[in-house]
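---------- Forwarded message ----------

FYI, see the tRNA N(3)-methylcytidine methyltransferase record below. Original note from H. follows.
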Amino acid sequence: MATSGESNSENEKSVPTFPKQKAFNLGDVVTGSAKTLSDAEKAKLEEQNKRMVTPFQALKLEQEARKHWDLFYKRNENRFFKDRHWTTREFSELLSGEEVEPAGSDSSTPTLVKSTDCENGKTLLEIGCGVGNLIFPLIEDGHRDYFIYACDLSPRAVELVQKHNLYDERYMKAFACDITSEEVFETLPEGSLDIVTLVFVLSAIHPEKFLPTVTNIYRLLKPGGVVLFRDYGLYDMAQLRFKPGHKIAENFYMRQDGTRSYYFAESEVSDLFRKVGFTVVVNSYIHRRTINPKEGIDVPRIFVQGKFNKLETA
């Protein structure tokens, strides 16, 4: 019987390949191939199967997803996640007064051109805004030439965003919303957005709701709009660390605090967005080491990062 590592490897040989983006950090490895597991790592994944989350527990986690994220932000407020000052470096679409042209180029080096979109009502939505770790660094760095919408499943997170000293409804609006449902259309009309960011968000959603989530995003975007995506990659260090009793389904896990995390194969992300109607601009695994010599930290991480475009003719 093939192991999960072997079956994923076989599947990825037959899927189409897409342009890869350049490495942004020294030591990054950008690839279309999943990590090759050692025997010890395969054994860890097999061990996880010995005691799974029960169907009753899994249903309760889904029903109480909002409650668990509210409790998360009650405990941690704005102290847990670091500000994401890296986003404009890795997603040049976010740069103030500039845009990438052409959107479908397969070049790893974006060509930047001056934009006058601020006059034309350019709009951005951050899905899963948390306490504003992406949007407020954008504002601090002077990227204010578009109106920012920010939504989160947790009303408590949205409240923290609204209390931030940089929150100003002249150029932003934060609101609570379940992006897997039709709820978002109560605030935003279809075809109203230029950019949607989906950074470490889809992994927190039940896999059965991936398709409706991405469908909603497609509906929200204007023709020519783009999704900027990053999330946990298959066999990331965090996935391998889960003990028995935390696995809900294949590559889907429950954390100690009741929040959940999914680990994506690069090919399934491409397939998901293409199924809805997006074109893949770039999509890659990024293997990165988080190193802090002072604290003796050297952690290998795996992300999937991509850009997905809604065609002008859509």
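H. also flagged this: The first helix runs from residue 4 to 13.
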